[in-house]
Amino acid sequence: MGILDAIWFRLLAAAIRVRDEERGDSMVNWVVMAIGLAVAAAAIVTIVRPALETAANKIVSVLSGA
């Protein structure tokens, strides 16, 4: 099971919990989940960025014929 699968299933479990809880707490939970998603996305971009830059540079080199 990959890291993205683990993240997805945790988010799915959190969404199910939010759905089943009372309405008053629901808004707070959605805000917390949105902030968590933003942090997770930033972490993934930070981790994957060097690999993306290397791949992009190789593609540019191949296309430019260098």
What is the total tally of β strands? 0
Global structural class: mainly alpha
How many structural units, i.e. domains?
A: 1
Give the DSSP E fraction (strand runs of 2 or more residues). under 5%
Which short descriptors sum up this protein?
mainly alpha; 0% strand; 91% helix; 66 residues
How would you describe this structure to a colleague?
The chain is 91% helix and 0% strand. With 66 residues, the protein is mostly helical. The model has no long low-confidence stretch (mean pLDDT 84). It has one domain. The longest helix is centred in the middle third of the chain and has 42 residues, at 23-64. It has helices at 3-20, 23-64. The chain is elongated, with a radius of gyration of 18 Å. Helix 1 (3-20) runs antiparallel to helix 2.
Summarize the structure.
With about 70 residues, this protein is mainly α.
Give the secondary structure arrangement, pairings included.
Blueprint: H1 3-20, H2 23-64
Helix pairs in contact: 1-2
